[in-house]
Amino acid sequence: MSDAFSSQTALVLFSGGQDSTTCLAWALSRFARVETLGFDYGQRHAVELDCRDRLVDGIKGLHADWATKLGESHTLSIPTLAAVSETALTRDVAIAMGADGLPNTFVPGRNLVFLTFAAALAYRRGITHIVGGMCETDYSGYPDCRDDTIRAMQAALSLGMARQFELHTPLMWIDKAATWKLAHDLGGDGLVDLIREHSHTCYLGERGAQHDWGYGCGECPACSLRAKGWREYVAAR
């Protein structure tokens, strides 16, 4: 455990996916107390939110101290985000590349909104550490996942709320194979198996087909990244 954080509380953006579950374990290994926050924004894959309870129950069984560190679980509903966006994550349309070079799964402003609401909740609860699974190493090209964006948000939130927030992005500079490895380093085979069985990544919300890396359609960008990372992780073991 890092001495710098060992007596402090963190708020983890916890969607129920692979990345956020890994980030939750990362926070539990460093902070004295950890709360979680999920968002219901009209996403097609809202099934991810249903995965959180099973993931939390499983995580509690991996390390005795993790169970005692886990605090409140929060869910915020932001239906306006879907109302103002025309994307493949909030509409029943085919996933494709847009004219701007970004996939139409990009929800403009999503992470900016998430971090703003997370900081507002953290402010009320006296928390200054916020953990998110943003990554610009092995991702779909979303501009609000870039490190520059996160650093700018940290500055803006700290200035705007007169409180020194620290935004932690432990996955920012690692690829999906390294994310699987990080999960193993943090929680062993138990955490890896928990993520494979109970986390959700598929943009289409598909939970019917099970693959060696977990459930999903196997073809959307999120599934493709997760599957590719899994293959590389297994090959390197």
Automatic annotation (TrEMBL):
Q: Which annotated residues bind ATP?
A: 14-24
Provide the GO biological process annotations: tRNA queuosine(34) biosynthetic process
- A GO term, aspect molecular function: ATP binding
Enzyme nomenclature, EC number:
6.3.4.20
Q: How is the cofactor bound?
A: Binds 1 zinc ion per subunit.
Which cofactors does it use?
Zn(2+)
**Chain positions recorded as Zn(2+) binding sites:** 202, 217, 220, 223
What keywords were assigned to this record?
A: ATP-binding, Ligase, Metal-binding, Nucleotide-binding, Queuosine biosynthesis, Zinc
InterPro entries reported in the protein's UniProt record: QueC, Rossmann-like_a/b/a_fold
Q: Which catalysed reactions does the entry list for this protein?
A: 7-carboxy-7-carbaguanine + NH4(+) + 2 ATP = 7-cyano-7-carbaguanine + 2 AMP + 2 diphosphate + 2 H(+)
Q: Which HAMAP family match?
A: QueC
Family that this chain belongs to: Belongs to the QueC family.
Q: What does this protein do?
A: Catalyzes the ATP-dependent conversion of 7-carboxy-7-deazaguanine (CDG) to 7-cyano-7-deazaguanine (preQ(0)).
What name goes with this protein?
A: 7-cyano-7-deazaguanine synthase
Q: Which organism is it from?
A: Bradyrhizobium betae
Q: Which gene encodes it?
A: queC
